[in-house]
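Agenda item 2: pyridoxal-5'-phosphate complex prediction
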Amino acid sequence: MISFDEFSQNLNRLKERIGLACASCGRNPDEVRILPVTKNHPVDAALHAQKAGLLSVGENRVQEAEGKIPLSSGISWELIGHLQSNKAKKAVMLFDRVQSLDSIHLAVKLNSEAEKAGKVLRVLMQVNSGRDPAKFGAEIEEAPKLLEEILKLSNLKVEGLMAIAPLDEDLASASRAFSNLRNLRDKLSSDFDVALPELSMGMSGDLECAIKEGSTLIRVGTFLFGERIYV
Ligand SMILES: *Cc1c(COP(=O)(O)O)cnc(C)c1O
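Presented output:
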């Protein structure tokens, strides 16, 4: 695991990248938040982030987060990986926000678990806006129906959309995925008359594209913490 000093240097370099990307498209860097992705790293990754003032971190798997969360306090944990509905109960207990809500079935399950827990769960709708056959996420065409159902569920609070660009493709296809997501957000927001401010898009390799397309939250693992250590 890298030291806190190394992490701080990486964070400074990341902020430079964000600053340059924002300058190139006239955005204010304060509009782009960083979600450090701590998956496949020990809990120290989350503690480094916290020490640097980044109080939310992203994890991919319920089980991995479950091991780390008791070893920290004051950190807000977000689920960014695919969630099976049989883990919905645990996810509701552990996470402050679930970014990977991609089906009506899962929405109903999360809502009922949140209701039992006396909690309103913050969520993002994950959309396969790059049409990657290997990716999770609702299809673009399914998104209106999914949002319509989520809005009926009183223990879920939908805050925006999330997407992962197609892997192993060029930055042009990442840009398309991100602009599709932004266009979809704009349309859903106006059709349903609901604010969907969060656009969670962009990772270590494509964050500049995502920022240019309007990202409000970049999810960054490798650039901050180095290669993932364990699986
Ligand atoms: C792992 C992961 C990231 C971070 O990816 P890096 O390329 O390491 O920055 C972001 N989002 C999701 C959904 C991930 O699974």
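Discussion summary: The mean pLDDT is 96.
Owner for follow-up: CH.
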